[in-house]
Amino acid sequence: MKVYILGGNNPYNTTKKLLDKMNFSLSNKKVFIKTNVHPNKTVSTDVNVIRAILEKLKDCDIIIGGNVGITGRPFKINNYYGLKEEFGVKLLDLDKDDIVIKKVRDPIRYKEFPVAKSSVDADYVINVAKLKIHSHAKVTMCLKNLFGCIPGRIRLTIRPFINDAIHDYMQIFRSDLNIIDGIIGNQNDEGIPHPVRSNIMIGGYDAICVDVVGTKCMGVDPEEVEYLKLLNYDSRKIEVIGEKIEDVLRCYSRRKLPMTYIRCFVEDCLRLAIRLNLLSKRHN
What we know:
It is a single chain. By secondary structure, this protein is an alpha/beta fold. It has helices at 11-21, 47-54, 73-77, 80-87, 117-121, 142-145, 152-158, 162-169, 207-217, 226-230, 245-248, 258-283; strands at 2-7, 26-27, 30-34, 57-58, 61-66, 90-93, 99-103, 112-116, 124-134, 138-140, 177-186, 195-204, 239-242. The N and C termini lie far apart (53 Å).
């Protein structure tokens, strides 16, 4: 499978050149774009990457989905409302979408998942992730980005078993075009800004292959990433086109920070509260 790496320091221009190199264009489709938005721009997919992609979509019905919390501020902070006005796209908080239950064919842990309806109803799915280290999964890019299509409360209970979950939900989700915004990546933690300027965009049509290349570009051995091993990444033959991995490699720090431990403690408390609430409902 071909994976493209393009160097550059401008998210919009570099994405345009990447898509041209991939000969990508799409017309007359129902398109779902899964982006990665966060209250901090540093750890979010740059909105200009999405803009460059939208310019390649002709006469398409487009939904851009993200997890924006109670306030919806991540879309506003990252200037996504400008895309809504410019291209007429729909912005969707995936935690407020209709839910459908999808069965897993060959599960390790999860026999089914509740998922956002828009994420599985589209003709074509574009997965636009950020190049980041992750405190639980070691790395987070396209495969982990789709985790946001599962409702928030369920995501919280699944998080300790994220590697099994990724293996299982990738039997449900499609991911037709996969882009990693690595102009400015993030090390140490997925939610706390510690930027690294990698000046690359990575793209391809196979999410596993794209994530393997992204993992290597951060100086992480794919053998250390459990979900990649569960998905048999080493059975895929990858042809890298464009920049060489060794020329763009930056060794991202994976050191957990004090705030990471605090956040994990808070999440553990919330998980316990959810379990107790479920037990209480069963007894009643």
